[in-house]
Design brief:
Layout lengths: L4 E8 L6 H14 L3 E8 L6 H11 L3 E6 L5 H11 L4 E4 L11 H9 L5 E8 L5 H18 L6 E8 H8 L8 H8 L3 E7 L12 H15 L2 H30 L7 H33 L6 E6 L4 H7 L5 H8 L1
Helix pairs in contact: 5-8, 9-10, 11-12
The structure holds uridine-5'-diphosphate and magnesium ion.
Uridine-5'-diphosphate binds next to strand 1 and helix 3.
């Protein structure tokens, strides 16, 4: 008898309007797999009634564990908290708003269990009702990111199944500023992609503003590539070459007595070189800021509270056929 335990990690931030319904949909899909499972909800410092909903869920239904972070640390930190606390043989990471279709879970588990893949990644075939600016921005970002990091992350999503080995490998990565999609690609292992269409968010709004997305993009690029730093050197070499050509030409004209007194070239050069210097300083500053954040070595998140479904739910779970009888009796012993 197989006794695989699957932990489903779900970051939740201000989702009170839909979390209960969505969890019941996810549970139904998990029950179809016939495996033992645990739903690990990470409340990322919600300011609405999300935490009380999670408490209700843990009182009403089995297999629920919830962590509450002490404030809103962001989705990446919430994912870290979930992955650190996950137990069992594999871990599925998905959003709370059903934009990652739970109907795909049985297929993900089949690929992991029967075909031996250690990472099953959901890739976005269609990006749902995202705004044009987000679609174009995401496309541009992933193109640059894939070129710079050497990992193809086009259409990547956080909807993934990770084997226990992969979760353990992920935990050994100690950086403070995490980028889950990039880190899980960096880890390697035997992987397969399955395409999915991003669902439409039925309730609430996306928590990712354009500013948040840009910050994440800068974080992702700076954690996976030092190339922007080299651009500064390339620019320096480029301008040195230009300066040599211009210098020789100016000297020649001076010697021939045909030098014209004009400010246009001087002003243009000043402006161009000035902007390049500013951008270069900005790039270097961004990396220094990242180093500063890393050396402070603060925790990635702080867990303020923790709740779990009680053991009394076991019989209910068994009655619902969520846990096979043998496992239920094992748990009782
Ligand atoms: N989320 C989170 N912390 C945040 C923002 C979002 O835990 O600071 C969660 C959110 O509850 C959802 C998932 O991350 O489960 C994806 O967020 P959202 O749907 O807002 O992003 P989008 O789908 O627009 O990328
Ligand atoms: Mg969403």
């Amino acid at each position: 008898m197989e006794r695989s335990l699957i932990t489903v990690v779900i970051p939740v931030y201000n989702e009170e309007s839909q979390i209960c319904e969505n969890i019941s949909v996810i549970r139904q899909c998990l029950a179809e797999t016939g495996m033992e499972f645990m739903i690990l909800l990470v409340d990322d410092g919600s300011t609405d009634g999300t935490w009380s909903r999670l408490k209700m869920l843990s009182e009403d239904i089995p297999c629920i564990k919830a962590l509450r972070l002490s404030r809103n640390f962001g989705k990446e930190a919430a994912l870290c908290a979930g992955l650190e606390a996950a137990e069992g043989d594999c871990c599925i990471i998905m959003d709370a708003d059903l934009q990652h279709p739970p109907a795909l879970i049985p297929e993900m588990i089949r690929l992991w269990k029967d075909e031996g893949y250690e990472v099953v990644e959901g890739v976005k075939a269609l990006r749902g009702n995202e705004s044009m600016i987000k679609k174009v921005g995401a496309n541009l970002f992933y193109r640059i990111q894939s070129k710079l990091s050497g990992f193809n992350m086009q259409q990547a999503s956080d909807f993934k199944l990770l084997d226990k080995k992969v979760v353990l490998a992920w935990r050994s990565m100690n950086e403070r500023g995490t980028f889950f999609r990039g880190m899980s690609a960096w880890i390697g292992y035997n992987r397969i992609s399955i395409p999915f269409n991003v669902g439409i968010r039925t309730n609430g709004v996306s928590k990712w503003s354009l500013f948040n997305l840009c910050t994440l993009a800068v974080k992702a690029i700076t954690s996976f590539s030092s190339f922007p730093l080299y651009i500064v050197t390339f620019m320096g070499v480029f301008f040195l070459a230009g300066a040599l050509v211009l210098g020789i030409q100016t000297l020649y004209m001076k010697l021939m007595g045909i030098a014209l007194s004009g400010f246009t070239t001087v002003i243009l050069l000043l402006l161009i070189i000035g902007s390049c210097l500013m951008i270069s300083l900005g790039v270097i500053g961004t990396y220094i800021a990242r180093i500063y954040e890393e050396v402070k070595y603060r925790p990635r998140y702080i867990v303020a509270d923790e709740i779990m479904s009680s053991e009394d739910h076991l019989s209910e779970a068994e009655a619902m056929g969520i846990w096979p009888k043998e496992i239920a009796s094992l748990h009782r012993e």
